[in-house]
Amino acid sequence: MSEVTAAFVARHARRNFWLNVIEGGIFMFGISMVSRFTVLPYFVSQYSQANWIQGLLPTIANTGWLLPGLFVAPYIAQLWTRKMPMLIGTFFERIPWLFMGIWLSMGNTLAPSTTLAMFFGLYAMHMFSAGATAIPWQDFIGRVIPEQRWGRFFGFQSGLGSLLGVAGATVATQVLAGQVITIGGVDLVGSYTFPFNIGVLSLICFGCLVVSFVFLVLTVEPRIPPQPKQPIWGSVKQMPQLLRKDSVFRTYLLARTGISLGILGH
Q1: pLDDT tens-digit profile of 7-26?
Q2: pLDDT value of position 185
Q3: What is the residue extent of each domain of the chain?
Q4: Best CA proximity match to 217, nearest among 89, 91, 87, 25
Q5: Is 64 helix (H, G, I), strand (E, B) or coil?
Q6: Which of 24-33, 179-188, 244-253 has the lowest average pLDDT?
Q7: Which architecture characterizes domain 3-230 according to CATH?
Q8: pTM for this predicted structure
Q9: Of 81, 11, 27, nearest to 214 (Cα)?
Q10: Which pLDDT score is estimated for 245?
Q11: How many CB atoms lie within 10 A of CB 222?
Q12: How many CB atoms lie within 10 A of CB 8?
């Protein structure tokens, strides 16, 4: 990073730091409304009790999150900035919840098989878009937050995200139970039965994701010269050599593999 770029990042560091901490918190609050561990399995179970149907949730989630990065990374490396491809990817990550919210809020009269096909199609769009967004987002954060603040940034963002995630899960529980959510004598969310309650949660999720999207838009990113152009499969071919030379990276991948095996099926 050049001195000019470093000065640019330092000048906007405080702004970018808090914008993205808050963005992460709001994102977690929203996505907790449609948790893939509780809310979505409940939705699927209303239309099928087959284990393999339930198993599609973690399959789509893990494949969608991990696979796109192999193809996105070489393309991203050729660009001067990461913000625009990140915003495009995360737009398609967020828009499925609007579609699902409108669809279910109007009532669902479709056959169970058609309902599940539509749901898994929207969920696949969400997860594969999230996977494609993850690479530019991580690089984006590395560019807009000074390196010496990375630990503090992820600590603050994870802490706020966890707190708001718990709050979101509490709201989701009440909505699924058909309870009215009242604050200060004002009914914020009414009582809804299935599938209207899932539609309401999807719309709340989308609303939060729109707000968090605005915080990403407001973040200021420096322009950094790209790396030399390299074919997608060129990066894949270099992996064996990289693993032999970089013991730290090799250990990191082994640790990540262990974690992935530990959460397999969730």
Answers
A1: 888 888 899 999 999 999 99
A2: 65
A3: 3-230, 231-266
A4: 87
A5: helix
A6: 179-188
A7: Up-down Bundle (1.20)
A8: 0.87
A9: 27
A10: 84
A11: 18
A12: 19
Cis peptide before 195 (omega within 30 of 0): yes
Question: Could you tell me the end-to-end alpha-carbon distance of the chain, in angstroms, rounded to an integer?
Answer: 40
Instruction: Assess contact for 207 and 30: CB atoms under 8 A.
Output: yes
Confidence of residue 166 (pLDDT cuts 50, 70, 90): very high
**Contact 138/237 with Cβ under 8 angstroms?**
no
Tokens of 247: 């013991």
Share of the chain above pLDDT 70, in %: 92
Does residue 257 have a pLDDT over 90?
no
**In Å, what is the CA distance from 31 to each residue of 58, 77, 107, 167?**
16, 29, 22, 11
Number of Cβ atoms within 10 Å of the Cβ of 15 = 13
DSSP state for residue 77 in the 8-state scheme: T
Separation of alpha carbons 99 and 34, rounded Å: 13
- The helix or strand, by DSSP H or E, that contains position 182, with its residue range, turns out to be strand 181-183
The three-class DSSP label of residue 229 is coil
Long-range contacts of 164-171, Cβ-Cβ distance < 8 Å, separation of 24 or more: 164/25, 164/26, 164/28, 164/29, 164/32, 165/28, 165/29, 165/31, 165/32, 166/32, 167/29, 167/32, 168/28, 168/29, 168/30, 168/31, 168/32, 168/33, 169/32, 169/35, 169/38, 171/33, 171/204
* Bridge partners for 187 per DSSP: 182
Measured from the Cβ of residue 150, the count of other Cβ atoms closer than 10 Å reads 12
